[in-house]
Each structure stands twice: as C-alpha cells, then as structure tokens.
Amino acid sequence: MKPFEYIRPATVAEAVAAAAQPGAAYLAAGTNLLDLMKGGVSRPDRLVDVTHLDGLDAIETLADGSLRIGALVSNADLAHDPAFAKSYPAVAEALLSGASAQLRNAATVGGNLLQRTRCAYFYDTASRCNKREAGSGCDASEGENRTHAVLGWSENCIATHPSDFCVPLVALDAMVEIEGRGGHREIALDELHRLPGDTPARESVLEPGDLIVAVRLPPAAHAFAAHARYLKVRERTSYAFAVVSAAAALRIENGKIAEARLALGGVAAKPWRARAAEDVLRGVAPAADVFQEAARRALTDAKPSGDNAFKIELARRIVVRALTLAAAGTPARMPALPASPFASTTGAIHA
Amino acid sequence: MPELNLTSAPAHIRHGSNIGQPLTRRDGVLKVTGQATYAADNHPPGMLYAVTAVAGISHGRVISLDVAAAKRHPGVVDVMTPEHKPQLAIDPEIKTNPFVFRMEALQSNEVRYANQPIAVVIAETLEAATEGAALLAPRYETLPPLVGLDAGESFVPPVVGVGNPTEIHRGDVEAGLASAEKRIDATYETPPQYHNAMEPHGIVASWDGDSLSVDMPTQGLKLSLARIAELFGIAHDKIHIRSPFLGGGFGSKGLMGGPPVLGIMAAKLVGRPVKLVLRREQMYGPVGHRAPTRQRLRLGVDGEGRLTALDHHARTVSSTFDDFYEPAADASHTLYAAPAIRTSHDAVRVHTGTPLFMRAPGEATGSIALESAIDEMAWACGMDPLAFRLKNYAEVEPISGKPFSSKALLACYEQGAARFGWAKRSLQPRQMRDDAGLLVGWGMGTATFPALMFQAEARAAIRRDGSGVMEIGAHDMGQGAWTALAQIAADAVGLDIARVEFKAGTSDLPDAGIAGGSAHTATAGAAIHSAGAAVIAKLADLATGDERSPLFGAGNAGVIARDGRLVRRDDESRGESYAEILARAGVAEVEARGTGAPNPAAMEEYAMHAHGAVFAEVKVDPELGQVRVSRMVGAFAAGRIVNPRMVQSQLFGGMIWGLSFALHEEAITDRRTGRIMNANLGEYHVPVNADVPPLDVITVEEHDPHVNALGIKGVGEIGITGSAGAVANAVWHATGVRVRKFPIRIEELLTPR
Ligand SMILES: Cc1cc2nc3c(=O)[nH]c(=O)nc-3n(C[C@H](O)[C@H](O)[C@H](O)COP(=O)(O)OP(=O)(O)OC[C@H]3O[C@@H](n4cnc5c(N)ncnc54)[C@H](O)[C@@H]3O)c2cc1C
Ligand code: SF4
Questions:
Q1: Which of B360, B299, B289, B339 is nearest to B319 (CA)?
Q2: pLDDT tens profile B607-641
C-alpha cells in the first residue's frame, strides 16, 4: 500500500484545513475508500479521519420540522431509528437494502453519498478510465456494460452512481450541509453529483476541503410517510447493488395524488429525480394507466450506453411497481427483505 | 446402520459403533475459537512477506519492470524476477506425469493470461511488499488475445477430463434421430467459474540448509511433495508439508500451482522464511477454474416418450499452453436409457490460466445442459418430467451396458417427489402463483456422480495401554475428514473414537491419495479399514497362539474386536483386553499397514455411481424478472453414510452450488482483453444466505457390496449435479421462458407484458 499521512483533526475547521491540500481525502468508515486504496484505484497522500469529530453523529428534529442527520451517523443507526423509519420509511427501506449488515454498521451518511461508482473498469487499474485518470479513455463503453447508465451519460463516461440511500433522499428534496474553506453552505442533494459530460473525474460540486457535515430533510418530506416505498431489483436477494431501483412517494388527499415524488437509482451518474413523471401524477387518482404514463415520461430521454437496453424497460416496470406499492400504502412493519420484489412473499401457492 | 456382512470385510470387524453416528466436527471448537491454524496463520521467526505482481494483460511480454523503484521502497528486501531468482532443478514446463500442470515460476517474461505472476516482491511487511509490487509498474508488449468459445481454430483434443475418450458412442445416433417421432436440438452455454475457496492460496516456506518446511493448504500432500521435490531437486524426506486444515479447495488446491512454488523460491532467494498469500483477485488465473462450455444436445423419442437417441456435444476451452478439457458431454453416459448415445467434445485455446478440476468437473456443466434438455423433451412429449425420466430409467449403464454395482435412484425419485409434493405440479408452465402474485415454478433434475477410488495407505497401531493410533496423510478441506475418517479408524481397531489417536494432514504420514473426485472418504477409509484389520489380526495372533489366553485356539477369524477387547466369536463371554494381550506378550505396541485401492475386477464388471433426485421451487416476479429459489429437496443414494451430519452438509453445499450455477456464478470476461472484470466476492456472485431457501436432504439407504470394502460412495460433488438443472427447469416452469445461457439473467425473463 502506498504510504500516506494520517491526520485526526480535533475540529471541523482543522479538518477542512487539512483536507484542502491536493492529494488529501476524508476518511469516514472507509468501507469504500480503503477498498479503493488497496486496489491502487485511489492513492491519497493524506487521509483526514473525520470519525472522531464531535457533533456529527446526531439525528435531530429542527424547530421548523425538518430533520438533520449528522454526516457520521451510521447507515444502520439511521435505518433502525424508530422515529426516522416511521417518518421517512422509503429512506430506511433503501438503507436496509444496501450492502450487508456489517457494512451498514460501519458506513456513514457522508460516505454513502460520496461513494464511488462500481464500474468494473474504474476499479481495474489495468483498464482505461476517464474517471480514474482524466483523458485516458473509457474501456466500459465498448466493454462489459450491461449494468451501466441509460440516462445522463456521455461518450466519456457511462458509469452509474450506486447509492440506494441517495435515491429516496433526492426524491424528498434532501439538502446537504457543507463546511468548506469559505465557511458553511448548503445545496440540494440533486445538485451534489455531477453528470459526466466532458469531465467525468469531477463527480460532485464539492471543492477541495469541503466536508459534508449533515443531510437535511425539509419539513414537507414526512408528509409522504403513509405512501412511500423503495424498490430495488438486483441479481441476488441481498448484498448486491441495484440493477435498477426506484423510490416513489405520494401524498394522497381525498383519493387523489396531491403530490408525487419519484427518483431512480442505478441508471445514471447521480440519483435520478424524475420530475416530468411527477407532473403527470399530480392531481389524479392513483391508477395503473397513470403509473404507466409516469413511467414512460420518466424514461423518455433514456438510451442504452451498451448492452443495457433492457434496463430502460426494467426501469419503466420498476417505476410502475414502486408507484403501485406506494399507493397501496407503507407497510406497518419494515419487510423482512427490504425493497425486494420478494418483500411481501408469504408462501401459499395456488394455481 | 445395520451390520454389514461384506465378503471383502475381515470377519472380526464390527461396523456401526462409530460409523453411522452423526458426530459433530471434532475440529469444530478449534475453528470457532480461532485456534485452528491455517497455513497463513504461521509466523516462523524472521519471516518475510512476499507479494506477487501479476500481469495486467492476457497475452504478450513484460518488457520492463521498475525493480529499482520497488527496491528503494522502505522495507523491501528483494525483488524476484525472471532474471533474478533461484534456479529450479527442472523446467516447470515439463510435464513429468499426467497430474503435473504447467505453471509460471518466472521462467520467462512471456504473459499467457491475465493475473499471471510476473514478479515477486519480498519485504519486511505485507504493506511494503504490496507497495513494492505496485511500484514495479510493468510495461508490456501486448499481443492480441484469444478470448471466448469462438476464439481461433477449434480442434478435437486427444482426451477430456482425466484420460476420458473425447468421443464415445454406442448405437447409431443419426439413425435413432431419424426414426424419432419427436426431436429437440438445443444449445446451452455455461460461463467460466472460479473456485473461490474462502481461504486464499497461501504458503509459508522455510529452508534449513537443504531441508524445507512448508505450511500450505493442499488436497494432495504427496503429490505436492513429489512436485516440490522434483522442482527443487531435493529428496522427499527433506520436505515436510503441514496442511491440517483447508478453508475449502474444490479442486483448486489439488495440484501444485505456480504461487506456492514462488513462495518456496522466494524463501530460498532471501534465505529466510517467507509467507506468500494470494489476494482474492490473484486467484483468478494461476490456480485453475471451470472452463466455459457450449453444449448442443439432440434428443429423439418414439411415440411413447422413449429416447431413441441422445447426442451430446460440448465445446470448451483450454489455455494456450496446457491441456485440460472439461468433459461436459460425458454427463450423458449414465443416466438415461437411450439405445443410441454419442458424446463428443471439441475445444479452442484462449489466453487464460489452464482450466482445472472444479467441484464436479464435467458433471456439473454437463448436468445442467442434459437436465434442461430432458426437461425440454418431457414438455415436447406432453409428459411430466418425472414420468419422462422414469420411462427412460436406465437399468444398466447406457453407454457400457454394464450392470450398476447398486442404484437406488428409483427410491430417490420416489422419496424426493413425495417430500416435495411433486404430484401437484401443473404440466403447463406459468400456471402457478403464490398469493403475492409471484410466478411459481417447480423443476427437477437427476443427480449422478461416479463412485471413484484412488490409492491410499494407512498405518495402525495398538498401544500397551490399549489405545489405538491411526496415521494417514488425509486432508480436511472442511468436509469433515478429521471426524469421518476417525470414525472409520475407531471401528477398524474396535475402539471408542476417544481411544484412537487419529493423525492426518502432514506429509510424513502414509499417502492418503488426493482429496478429490469425491473419493477421499472411500479411498482413505478403505486404507484405514484394512490397516485396522491388519493390526487386529496381529493382535489376535498374539492371543490365539498363547495358551495362557482365553482366546487360545480360537483362530484369527474366530475373534471379534470390540470396545478394546478381543472376544471369541462362538462365546462372547470369553475374551481379553488389548492391554492384557500386549502386557502378557511384553510388547509396547503392535502395528500394521493397510492399503485402499480400486478393485479392477469389480470395475470391469460394474458401473459404479452415486445417484440422486433434486426438486426445486422458484418464485419469479412476473414483470421484473427477479428470481428466488424458495424450496429445494434432494434425495441421494451414495452407499454407506459414514457420518450423516457431515454428509448432509456436503449435500447442502452441493445443492447451494447448483443454485449458484443456475442463477449467479459467472466470471465476466472482457471480450477484448480477456481480463476478468469481477474478480472479487462483491461482484462475482455466489448465493448469500437470503438466496438459500430451506433445504431438505434425504439420504436414501443403499448397500453396495462392490464399490469398496466399506460400501462408501462419495458425496462431495453429486449435490451440484441435478440441482443446477432443477433450478433452471423450475424457472422455465414458472415463466414459460427457456433460458439456455447460464446464469439465468433478469433480462431474459423480462417477457412482454
Ligand atoms: C461489498 C459492498 C457492497 C455494497 N453494496 C451497497 C449497496 O447495495 N447499496 C449501497 O448504497 N451501497 C453499497 N455499498 C457501498 C457502501 O454503502 C459505501 O461503501 C458506504 O456507504 C461508504 O461509507 P463510508 O463511511 O465507509 O465512506 P468512506 O469509504 O470512508 O468514504 C467514501 C468517500 O466519501 C468521502 N467522504 C466520506 N465522508 C465524507 C464527508 N463527511 N464529507 C466529504 N467527503 C466524505 C471519502 O473521502 C471517500 O471518497 C457496498 C459496499 C461494499 C464494499
Ligand atoms: S464508464 Fe466511467 S468509470 Fe467506467 S471506465 Fe468509463 S470513464 Fe471510467
């Protein structure tokens, strides 16, 4: 392993100062970063360990009714917080569908947002990758790419962002609080990740030294609690990234959808908010045909980036199913197989 | 288990006191408390760490390595390259016997597959060695690689598997097809797969002058020893290998590969003990894999649903520099009674590490294709798949016409089907749903695996205190040899298992043969059995020839060994303890050796196989195509069951591997570079707990007087066969979609709405 400097700052300000230098990286639980370092994919000179910073591990309800989640809260602690799971069930379901119990116990909120793509060519240092080494080329574009992006990709990069957590968060208009060299600022999560364009190596809008300190869900987000689901199709029942996923959240009043939220995962370099589909749903009664229309709208701009045309049809079907499940109502208890198409399996068989 | 009176069994051994008991693993507590030392747990004083640098291309030449940069890195002690290495006594390219495979021991700068070792960095710490390897920054001359089943020119290999004929036929297949009422012609593909044992291949090697001490996991202690001896030009008795535990092998630790040889070379180069452990991704190359196959099956049936012909052709791959051909089509030799059968193979060469034995080599790949084709034909005939199999049940081995030494397959079908509830299956596909609306499908497959025997030797002794010793260089890969073989040993010397010191797992013990081919318990067990019989016979001689003994005059066959005593067969109240016999004779111990080996006469006369029937239920999301297995029942007949608990675990493991074969496992290979893109356990999918349904294993009683003295057939591999096909057939039954390329992917099941 490449030798690196290890710094454990006492305060956020020290952390920002230490991480602003070229070659520095924040270390949270390291479940992604250390793998990348062992593989020679990331070779930082300096690790700034933020896990000992005070005050970043709280889940708190603010005066205006919004919820603030510290960047160091673990994925597991957040998902298993009863009040959180009750108010934001799709987010809890997404968290519990990710990785494994061991990884979720370690992984942090901030690290989950900024986890890197799982594109195999990005991980394989013998391959060319514009994200790993700007301008070197993209070996995925003519390679094994059946799980790559169908939305928002460019010739320079067809990778997806793999996070489950981010999908319902972006649907619920989550905000990201950042401390940087210029002080405190906040941006919408939808603005955090960049599409690849000509600069796939620049994955987010963060500047050197920028530290995510919290994620905030606005007051309106818990209004969807009664009708919110996350659905994730994957190639084994657990412990696999999404082939495609969707978060659907509905506010239903008098039998009509007052407001709909929809986002897709595993389809683009960022969690993909499908606003055009949301528009179709506003003010109508939940029904199969409107869900179909929403699904069509959500994928209007989709195009295969390789051997992955099936993901477009799969995404449409997932949207329909996620909306159907959301309309049926959030289950009283978290399913044993969160976000799985098999979540509601009971057992009895009939012809 | 009732007493067996086998003709070949010595009369004074009584089976059943230890054999047949579901003992838990005798090494279990060591393992769960972390006290079982695997090879890489050893740290002799002064040990250094070696890390291999591996090729980033699959074909070409290394033209430069920045050795200076690696050596400058703090902690790096030396860098072993083709130019700087200890000389081997023989060229590793020479195949000195059929079980020697070519390996890369830095003999040249040629690259013939990705992840091939190209240099070894030796350092004070693992971290320094790892960074040193990265700093080598190899530059290559890259040549276009051959990739995939259609690469280059195909050819017919001289043999497949271990010496099997490439093509075999019986009867006239073309005539059988021509006369058939119905025919199917279907092509199936299976992907490259990697063993992925939990424990990576590793070695700790220490030289002391020209003596060598080695800790490494091996499924073949004596084969490894002989290979090390010839490569390093040292006598067998100068080498000591310890391999008490393997964290799985599945065939990848059977034959000596390049990486452990590099570890021994590195230790020699630096004159200190060296540890070399492969990283997970480095296991995708130099230590074998299961080759991909493309299999074409042509079947014909008459108006009654009886097979008229079965033609099974398999295309596979080998490396560009050595020969191993997955004998996939041979799976069609034994199961279905077609009057005309032909099996044939061809191959192409690709830039990959040489494929090797991987759990059920040939049987697993062949079985999923054969069982799928049988299922397709049953459907074409409008017959229930079980009824179709029964109609084509083979009373004698179809390819040879030989009778079976034993075959309780009918009972497997019957008991498995009953437990599963198969009779309620709808004939038509896509008919069954659960109350969540998921499609439900039921499928089945027949399991089969040959009952093999290799050569082994054991040494038994009875000591003055009445206790026993059994020594055999057997291998516990997790399957339970420490327990099952000790059970056989205890019965063989007529003692309680606690009174027998059972020694295994080191190269100074008698040769147990290779732990492979599902033959270890049978082979090592037979040697133990015969060594035990021989030592008891010596003990009996001491007693029956001594007029002071109550056994005087009973004759060797007139005594029975039981619970540490010899008693008269005609009057069990008369007898004496082992300790008494030895004390009076004034000897410290009696010892004897015994061997286990195949019986050529029996093999000439009988076809010997284990059998089974596997039934699977899957659920498939009708719109989203995700599949989950919800139930599996497997009924297996494999001769005598030495330890029902271990056997059940082996069969569970096999069935899970079958599920994995059908739905998960695939090494994704970049078609341009031949590099494997998912060489890690995050992305190379094997089932996780949530994928594994309740499994139900039935072991069907089967007595086989011919396979070996103990009547044991193997259980290590058969569980995969049948299971993979059962899951695939269940997916068809659920969806009506026949997927012929494995693993079955979601996109294949996204049927139009
Ligand atoms: C085998 C495996 C399977 C997985 N499966 C899934 C899955 O199914 N779904 C899923 O969503 N995820 C999955 N993951 C990914 C997992 O969720 C992430 O690894 C984890 O969330 C990262 O969190 P961390 O705290 O370990 O981050 P780290 O690894 O410590 O950091 C990740 C990145 O974020 C940066 N960073 C961390 N914290 C901050 C901060 N506060 N401010 C600024 N930058 C920061 C780091 O510099 C680094 O670049 C899987 C991971 C593995 C290894
Ligand atoms: S898709 Fe993006 S991440 Fe993958 S190889 Fe291409 S540039 Fe790199």
A1: B289
A2: 999 999 999 999 999 999 999 999 999 999 999 99
Instruction: Give the pTM.
Output: 0.96
Neighbour-count burial for B475-495, b at 16+ CB within 10 Å, e otherwise? bbbbbbbbbbbbbbbbbbbbb
Q: How many Å lie between the centroid of ligand 1 and the Cα of residue A84? A: 21
- Min Cα distance A85 → chain B (Å) is 22
The Cα–Cα gap between B143 and A22 comes to 38
Q: Give the closest of B57, B668, B750 to A314, CB-based.
A: B750
> Given an 8 Å threshold on Cβ–Cβ distance, is A127 in contact with B675?
yes
Phi and psi at residue B248, to the nearest 5°: 85, 150
B40-144+197-283 and B453-597 in the same fold: yes
Q: Which atom of ligand 2 is nearest to the CA of A137?
A: 7
Percent of chain A surpassing pLDDT 90: 97
Alpha-carbon gap: A64 to the closest alpha carbon of chain B (Å): 40
Q: Is the CB of A308 under 6 A from ligand 2?
A: no
Average pLDDT over residues A161-189: 98
The tokens 């309800």 sit on which residue?
A61
Question: For B590-610, how does the pLDDT look when each residue is reduced to its tens digit (9 = 90+)?
Answer: 999 999 999 999 999 999 999
CATH of domain A225-328: 3.30.390.50
Residue B111 near residue B59, CB atoms below 8 Å: yes
CATH topology of domain B362-452+604-749: Aldehyde Oxidoreductase; domain 4 (3.30.365)
- Mean pLDDT, residues B281-285 taken together: 97
Does the C-beta of A113 come closer than 6 Å to ligand 1?
no
Nearest CA in chain A to B426: A351
Domain ranges of chain A: 225-328
Domain B40-144+197-283, architecture per CATH: 2-Layer Sandwich (3.30)
Residue position matching structure tokens 């924040």: A26
CATH of B453-597, one of 3.40.190.10, 3.30.365.10, 3.30.930.10, 2.60.40.10: 3.30.365.10
Amino acid at A7: I
The domain spans of chain B are 40-144+197-283, 362-452+604-749, 453-597
Test A235 with B691 for CB contact under 8 angstroms. no
CA distance B641 to chain A (A): 33
Q: Does ligand 2 lie within 6 Å of residue A117's CB atom?
A: yes
